[in-house]
Amino acid sequence: MIINRKQLLRIILIILLLFILIFQVIKTKEFSNKKELLQAEIMKQQLLNFNLKNEHLKTINSKTKVAAAENDIKESTAQILAELKTFNLKLIDFSSAQTELTLNLNGSFHSILNFIYYLESEMNQFKIAEFKIKNGENDLFFFLKLKNELIKNEKDIF
């Protein structure tokens, strides 16, 4: 059995093509596995990005609510101080913090009573935390501490 050179060349080429084909199939499987791994990593990263975006938006919204509540306190404090004259009360001293307002006032009992009624009926966000009355010469001295119940400390929010 003599094999022709042409036939030998054909057999060698066929074997070579089979090796190339097997090599290409192996490389294709490797690339498809890499592609699946990369797609899984991309999906994980997209999910992580989505979660971080939601967390960031929640943080921004909560900070916005705190800022809005702080602005409400400033407006309410200004409104309370403006109303003192209508109740014939004299402001001796006041201090304001993030969650409370402290007032030292001077006036008649009737004026103080009307002012407290105004606070309870009109200023719903403030609750009376402490209340003291001292008798002066002609008027009463009046200490009032109001707490804002709409604002919590930042530690409670975050």
Automatic annotation (TrEMBL):
The chain crosses the membrane at residues 7-26. Keywords: Membrane, Transmembrane, Transmembrane helix. The keyword Transmembrane applies. It comes from the Bacteria. The keyword Transmembrane helix applies. This is Uncharacterized protein. It comes from Halanaerobium saccharolyticum subsp. saccharolyticum DSM 6643. The lineage of its organism: Bacteria, Bacillati, Bacillota, Clostridia, Halanaerobiales.
